[in-house]
Design brief:
Number of strands: 8
Largest sheet: 6 strands, mixed
Strand order of the largest sheet: 5-4-1-2-3-8
Distance between the termini: 31 Å
Length: about 325
């Protein structure tokens, strides 16, 4: 018997705007716009897979889909590498899934791209940190060489880079530090483009909007980034802080309760430090949480995309 063809996506044109927005959020697409715009966006994006798919009959681990998720920073750049199960996405990821059907976190760490310059106590004025393209270009190459060319057990097939804002918290001014991270972000994309163009590394690179990741994982009032307290709506720095705390709690549940990811090797040590309190805990947990929820969001977006295409309208209300 010939395999059944995926159902047509024409049913999307019959949905309400709220349903279209929900599908867009579940697949990592922009959820704003009119019904015709949302429908066109979904019709154009849903049939296209954004993850490498190896031969399921192959035992070659070098062809396993691996996602490198990077949370941008200079002092605190966090990254993780996820390896997808051999039969993925044949088994839908759920809290009941066996460990062998869950994404494996092979690496999870936070690093300083460039250390602070050391100044002698008697030096006046203190040494100013250089931040020019010529200084940071080697940092970009060194970072990606270690994460891709020297990656163990195999290099990533998909790289996700957190898209940086031009302004922080709606401020009218652009902070110098924002410009610095934005420049380094552009350098990473340039290096990756060069590696791909010369076939030194073959994979896909995507910029990920943090707001879409947060909208996917956080439910209720946190999903919109606003929360009423005493009749007031929380915005600005307090809103951002709430989002960070919620993502830290989410990742802590994943590590403590299991059923979402499996930590292996050094990532397991990072996980122990993430849930530990006091001196035994790791610092900057928000950055470590950001890179992991970004990577897992991408996995779920791709799984949801596949289910929408294959299962049709019956998938409504059942996406995770």
């Amino acid at each position: 018997m010939a395999p059944r063809s995926p159902p047509s996506l024409a049913w999307l044109t019959t949905l309400k705007a709220t349903q279209l927005k929900a599908l867009a959020t579940a697949t990592g697409l922009p959820s704003s716009g009119t019904k015709p715009l949302l429908t066109a966006r979904l019709l154009a994006s849903l049939p296209i897979s954004k993850l490498y798919h190896p031969d399921p009959a192959s035992n070659d681990t070098s062809t396993t889909p691996r996602i490198l998720s990077i949370d941008m920073g200079i002092r605190n750049l966090a990254y993780c590498q996820l390896a997808l199960p051999a039969r993925w996405p044949a088994s839908h990821t759920s809290n009941q899934a066996a460990p062998s059907a869950l994404p494996v976190v092979e690496a999870w760490d936070r690093i300083a791209v460039a250390p602070r310059p050391a100044s002698a106590p008697s030096e006046t004025p203190p040494t100013k940190e250089p931040f020019d393209p010529a200084t940071y270009a080697p940092h970009a190459l060194s970072l990606l060489s270690s994460l891709i060319l020297a990656a163990a057990p195999s290099p990533p097939t998909t790289i996700l880079i957190e898209r940086q804002r031009f302004r922080s918290l709606g401020s009218s001014s652009v902070q110098e530090w924002t410009l610095r991270v934005n420049m380094f972000e552009a350098m990473l994309h340039a290096v990756l483009h060069t590696l791909r163009a010369h076939r030194i590394w073959e994979g896909d690179v995507y910029a990920v909007e943090p707001g879409r990741v947060q909208a996917f994982w956080l439910s209720g009032e946190e999903k919109t980034g606003e929360k009423a307290e005493g009749g007031r709506v929380v915005k600005g720095p307090r809103k951002a802080k709430q989002g960070k705390e919620e993502k830290i709690r989410l990742v802590r549940r994943w590590v403590e309760e299991g059923g979402v990811v499996v930590l292996e090797g050094r990532a397991e040590e990072t996980g122990k430090g993430f849930v530990a309190k006091g001196k035994g805990g790791v610092g900057k947990k928000d950055d470590l949480a950001d890179c992991l929820v970004q990577g897992m969001a991408w996995v779920r977006w791709e799984e949801n995309r596949r289910r929408i295409v294959e299962e049709g309208v019956g998938v409504l209300g059942g996406l995770g």
